[in-house]
Amino acid sequence: MTDAPEFKSREEWLASLHRVYAAAGCLINDPAGRVLIVKAGYREHWQFVGGTVDLGENPRQCAERELLEETGIVKAAGELLAVAWTHPSGELDHPACHFLFDLGTVPADTPITLPAGELDAHRWATVDEALDLLGPARSLRLTAALAAREDGRTRIVTAPNSGF
């Protein structure tokens, strides 16, 4: 005999399952190796260009859409570099899954058009600066993504908090 609950319908079973927040981001560098990061006024730390996956799109499409919406740059997403999982916490009531894609290199003088009311600033940061400015969850993703670029192996990491 099992202690698993019995469900009367598929809908009841589906309603019992945990939900997961999904987001996708872009790792973009300039020719000097600096990382493009953006700052939202409502968040403590800087972040990657990216956002939550919309209904009907996959994470790669999300990264490409967010790149256009947050910077004005049109570019196809490259390889999946890192997947970060975070457990529910006081910050988020459900787990979160973040996909970080390689968007390659763009010239540092590429015009960046930030969406008014959503993002306050952007900057090209050295890797060390970015690790400091991104905060713990996103820094973990950056470290994993850079390692993945080196050896071609996607990394899966568990973050200490959401960075969502």
TrEMBL record:
Its cofactor is Mg(2+). CDD domains: NUDIX_Hydrolase. Coiled coil: none annotated. Residues 18-148 form the Nudix hydrolase domain. Pfam families: NUDIX (PF00293). The keyword Hydrolase applies. Keywords: Hydrolase, Magnesium. PANTHER family: GDP-MANNOSE MANNOSYL HYDROLASE (PTHR43046). Belongs to the Nudix hydrolase family. This is 8-oxo-dGTP pyrophosphatase MutT (NUDIX family).
